Protein: DUF116 domain-containing protein
Amino acid sequence: MSIENTIAKLASIGADLSTRNAIRIALSLISEDEELTDQIYVEIKNKAHKEEFIKVPVEERAIFIPQCLRNVKECPAEFGEYGWECTKCGKCPIGEIIEHAEKIGYKHIYIVPGGSLVKKVLKEKVPRGEIKAALGIACWPELAEANEKLSILKIPLQAVPLLRAGCINTLVDVERVKEAMEIGLTKKDKAKLPSSDPNPAPVP
Ligand code: SF4
Structure:
């Protein structure tokens, strides 16, 4: 059964889907795999937070990229105050992700080794009003945990799961990341972006 169908089935029995624990219990009631808990929780939260995320201008959205996406053996990035400083060498997808984000206007982009740096960034920049929404790339359990923590700070999160999780050389769907970054942008906004296509289609 697809995740959407599982969510629909849970909704049809009136299950409480507001917390990870409630989802885990509901899954066991319909004899579905409880390991789907985090995935379902994150998908539900992505939908629930989308409208709030849209209201935040891109300059006030943070992007958190996990360091496990780096090409560990060949990455020339140095580690700075706010995580790895990518040189866009092209040896992993992070360079492309950052380049696209910068074109759109994102100012807060972090390649983080873990939750402690995310916490440091949020602790500094949320009270100053510099960050009001977040886009995170991680494995399902980390995304679920981030959702719980950011809800407390009232920071709407859009989460993109890794296609291959692990500690090194993980994988992500770059197009899905770009789509998430562009949430809330109008067709006209997108048309203003510098394009790598020499013959872009006209915007209706
Ligand atoms: S694109 Fe950036 S993060 Fe990836 S290997 Fe190159 S410098 Fe490192």
